[in-house]
Design goal:
alpha/beta, five-stranded mixed beta sheet, 10 strands, about 30% helix, globular
Length: about 220
Amino acid sequence: MDNIDSESLVVSPVKRKDGTYSLRLCINQGQLTVGMLKTVMDTMAKFNLTSLRATTGQRMNLEGIPEAKLSEVVASLGIAVEKAPPGLSVCSGAGICIYGVQKTRAMGDKILALVKENGPYPFKVKSGVSGCKMACGLSFIRDIGLVGAPKGWDVYFGGAATRNAGVGIQLGKNVSEDEALSLIGKALVYYRENGRKRERTSGTIKRLGADALLAAVK
């Protein structure tokens, strides 16, 4: 890999119970470029790190970093941020997956931008974008869920994968991309203004009722 230029990464440190740290690689939609891979592999070799694991949120965690070496490892990889960007799960979508009926990757970027634009929120907001109703992007149980349909997008809000798991409230069916983004933007504002501290979207909807949400996005 000597002919490959290294690329800097953004990482978020997470302290573990055993006193070591993991560095969450803040990559977009699970994509690592060859330059990023070179940076990670060179760092692992330099500091004798042995564990790089994929997360359920389509990120990567570099694990087992001693606290005394944390700043050096961060400097080797790139720069650190206190908090990772909002979670986003995106399937392959149309054009790649044989089952996909809508393209997902560009839509995923637009959803992420919308979430950042309308924050901050009472608590974390996770999104899922799926190209078909098989929902490999976990869209039904995310705070924001988009599911590809033959004529557009089905839009869900307030899903949960916690101990009180449940499917989100459907805000729209077979809507256009612009309509989907508009619905999600209104729902995010509703959550921002009505959610309690550390209350997820599902908790806000359970407390105030689905009708209140649906009225807010009309």
